[in-house]
Design a protein that fits this description.
- InterPro entries: Aminotrans_V_dom, Aminotrans_V_PyrdxlP_BS, Cysteine_dSase, PyrdxlP-dep_Trfase, PyrdxlP-dep_Trfase_major, PyrdxlP-dep_Trfase_small.
- Keywords: Iron, Iron-sulfur, Metal-binding, Pyridoxal phosphate, Transferase.
- It catalyses: (sulfur carrier)-H + L-cysteine = (sulfur carrier)-SH + L-alanine.
- This is cysteine desulfurase.
- This protein has twelve helices and twelve strands.
- α4 runs parallel beside α5 and α6 runs parallel beside α7.
- The protein is an alpha/beta fold.
- It folds into two domains: about 140 residues, Alpha-Beta Complex (Aspartate Aminotransferase, domain 1), CATH 3.90.1150; about 240 residues, Aspartate Aminotransferase, domain 2 (3-Layer(aba) Sandwich).
- β3, α5 and β4 form a beta-alpha-beta unit.
- The strands form three sheets. The protein has a seven-stranded mixed β-sheet with strand order 2-8-7-6-5-3-4, sandwiched between helices. Strands 9-10-12 form a three-stranded antiparallel β-sheet.
Length: about 375
């Protein structure tokens, strides 16, 4: 039985074209970018070329791209770095109630260090009201961090409007674009973004690579101290195979973005239409303002973990929520934030499409899922 992977929001396979671009940097072009000899300078050239390629995708300058080891590291650097760089002047940070766990946990840690954190509510679709941002900013606010597109429910925020408010209020604005980078157009200048997080493993690049865009003139306090790589903001020997792979993956995304987005939207809408035919099923997230590859549906009288296991036994891989925290038994904080009860949140299924997803695979899910749901509901204790 051929297995069907529908969890692309968790991670993606490395594109073969990306792998080919990476291969020389493991054993042939293996120099350290800080070395002055030809091996080092060859690696340095590849590093700067990769920086330029990634900057081009978001209309940034190459020197504004800081390479990191992951989106988690980028998000930690954005929040903690900006907080500590400005701690003598301000102490207030604003995030939304549907951020990724690495933003939530960073904010919690900063609270323990004496910073004040405000979590903004969202509506039933998961949208932050820009007016709430405006009202919440005070003269003590350092940073606003709002996720661009939700990793769980796919809702896309009005980042341009939020960024405009922050710029007018002279407050730094960061967005976690891990899910949106490479999938939808991003222009950091037009969208008034000061800091932006992106991840390689979400766009068919290797794991272990991310970047933080830092607008020129902004200087976060570094988390890592050492040899002074990445303009002193992220000391560590550059992971050249991963960085070259990340740049190649973004190049491919730029070339194929429009065509792939349309293809996935068609599959997404077809899937949603058919899943909502199942009795007592509901769409989570915005019906229109959502990523082309995201479907999040909840089913009454269903326990999510059981549903995932049953689908896996049928050869289909999906998710109940964020892959970084799906091993916990707590209901998703994102689903609770949009107004779901814990029991409803536990009955939600996240299906995320990818470059390799076919209509045949979607039809297989449409065929299998109603049978599995009926089977679970027949023995469900939730009906009582």
């Amino acid at each position: 039985m051929k297995k069907i992977y529908l969890d692309y929001a968790a991670t993606t396979p490395v594109d073969k074209r990306v792998l080919k671009a990476m291969e020389p940097y493991f054993s042939e072009k293996f120099g350290n970018t800080m070395s002055l000899h030809s091996f080092g300078q060859e690696a340095k050239l590849a590093l700067e070329n990769s920086r330029a390629v990634l900057a081009n995708l978001i209309n940034a300058k190459p020197n504004e791209i800081i390479f990191t080891g992951s989106a988690t590291e980028s998000n930690n650097t954005a929040l903690k770095g900006i907080a500590f760089a400005n701690k003598d002047k301000e102490n207030h940070i604003i995030i939304s109630s549907i951020e990724h766990p690495c933003i939530v946990e960073s904010a919690k840690w900063l609270e323990k260090q004496g910073f004040k954190v405000t979590k903004l509510p969202v509506d039933k679709y998961g949208l932050v009201n820009p007016e709430d941002v405006k009202k919440t900013i005070t003269n003590k606010t350092i940073l606003v961090s709002i996720i661009h597109a939700s990793n769980e429910i796919g809702t896309i925020q009005n980042i341009s409007e939020i960024g405009k408010i922050c710029r007018e209020k002279r407050v730094y604005f960061h967005t976690d674009a891990s899910q949106s980078f490479g999938k939808i157009p991003i222009d950091v200048k037009k969208m008034n973004i000061d800091l932006l997080t992106a991840s390689s493993q979400k766009i068919y690049g290797p794991k272990g690579a991310g970047f933080l865009y830092v607008r020129e003139g902004i200087r976060p306090a570094p988390l890592l101290h050492g040899g002074g790589q990445e303009n002193g903001l992220r000391s560590s020997t550059s992971n050249m195979p991963a960085i070259v792979g990340f740049a190649k993956a973004s190049e491919i995304c730029k070339k194929e973005m429009v065509k792939e987005q349309k293809r996935q939207e068609k599959l997404r809408d077809y899937l949603i239409k058919n899943l909502l035919k199942i009795k007592s099923s509901y769409l989570n997230g915005h019906p229109k303002e959502r990523l082309a590859n995201n479907v999040n549906v909840r089913f009454d009288f269903i326990e999510g973990e059981t549903l995932i296991m049953q689908l896996d036994m049928a050869g289909i891989a999906c998710s109940t929520g964020s892959a970084c925290s799906s091993a916990t038994l707590e209901p998703s904080h994102v689903l609770l934030a949009i107004g779901l009860k814990p029991q409803e949140a536990h009955g939600s299924l996240r299906i995320s499409l990818g470059r390799q997803t076919t209509e045949k695979e979607i039809n297989k899910l449409i065929e299998v899922l109603p049978k599995i749901i009926k089977k679970i509901r027949d023995i469900s204790p939730f009906k009582a």
